[in-house]
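Let's practice the habit of predicting before peeking. Look at the sequence and jot down your guess about where helices and strands might fall. Then scroll down.
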Amino acid sequence: MLNRLAPGTAAMSPVRQQAPVPAQAAPMASAGTGAAYQQPAVRERIDFCIPCNPYFPTPHMFGRLRESLETILTYYPSDAGTVTAELCSVLGLNPQTVAMGNGSTELITWIDHLLVGKSLAIPVPTFGRWTDQPLETGKRVDMYQLREEEDFVLDLQGYVRFIRRRGSRVAVVCNPNNPDGGYLRRSQVVWLLDELADLDLVVIDESFIDFVDAERAPSVADEAAIRPNVVVLKSLGKNFGLHGIRFGYLVANPALAGTVRRALPKWNLNSFAETVVFMLREYGEEYRQSLTMVSSDRANMAMALAALPELVVFLSQGNFLLVKLPEGVDGAVLRDRLLTEHGVYVRECGNKLGSSSRFLRLVVRPRPDVDRLLAGLRACLYGTGHQHTAHQLVRAALPAAAAAS
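Done guessing? Here is the structure:
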C-alpha cells in the first residue's frame, strides 16, 4: 500500500490536497547542454543507497572536469573566501551570512563544538551525524521519536513540549527528513522558529530541500540570516550527488556565520569543489530540469513500489523513499541478496537510531533502474516475478534455515 494514498494516485506531495509544482533553484544562466542520464550497463551494480541526482551534473560537466583534471590536481585551490563569494554571487546570498565547509559533516562538527552547550534535541530517525556528533563530545541528546503510525510526520507542538520538558537548549530539524523524506512547509518551520526563539540555537538542516516540489519557496535561509539563533544547513554534495567532492554551506546571521567561518581552516575547500562552484552559473537550467525529472521519477517509483504486496511506501519530498518491509522480513538479509543476486545496492535502516531493519531507504532513480530493483524485490520477496500470498512472501525473504522452520 502507498501510505495514506491508494495505489494509482498521481499526486505524491506530502501535503495531501495539493498537487506538486516544479522545484525551484536560484536563477542562473544555462549552458544549453540539457540534463541527461546514462543507464548503467546490464552487469553494472545500481546504487539505490547513496542519495544522488541521476541527471546532474550533466555528461558535459563531467567531460569538462575530466579535461581539467591535471590542473585541478596540480594547483592549490583558492581560499574559502573566494569560493564562498562566487557561490553567494550565484545564489544571491550575502557572503557575511555564509560559511562553506568540506561537506555538511564538517559544519555539523563545528556547530557542535562552537554553538552547542550541554544538550541538543532532535527527532529520530534522522541523519546520523546529528545524534552521533554531540554524543561523541559528551552532550546530552534528547531524541524525539517520530511515530510510524503517524507516518513519521513531525508533530511540531509535541516537539516543542518535549524540548521544554527536557530543557534542551539546542533544537535540530532536518527538512526534508532523512530517511523518510517527511517535509514541513515553510510556514510551519517559521512557526517553530518563533516558538523556539529563546533557545541558544535552532538548526534547520535543508540538505535535501532542492528536491521539494510541494511549494515554490520552501527554504527558510532568509529567516536564518536575520534571526539571532538560527542556522540553516545546505549540502551541495547531496543536491548534486557529488558526495566525493565534499562541499556544503550554512546560512546564519553575520555574527553566527562569522563564528563558524573563523574556526574553519582557510583552505578547507578542495579544488574539485571550487571548480564545480565556478561552473554552476553556466548550468542553472540543467539543474532545474534535473530537479523536475527527479520529482517525476519519485512519483513513478513510489507508485511502482506501492504495487508490491505488503510493502508500505512513505510519502517523500527528498530524493529517496522509505519503505517498510512485510512482517518477518529481515532487511539486512534482503539487502545482501539484492546486492549479490541482482546487483542492486539498497540502504537498510537497522543502524539508524529510532528505526529498524524492517525499513529500507531507496534512492530515487530513473525507470530502467527501478525496473531492475522491482525484479530483484519480486524474486527475493515472492520467489518469482509474480505476486504470492503473504505467507509465501515472508518465507521467501528469510534465510534458508529460518524459512525451513
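How did you do? The first helix runs from residue 59 to 67.
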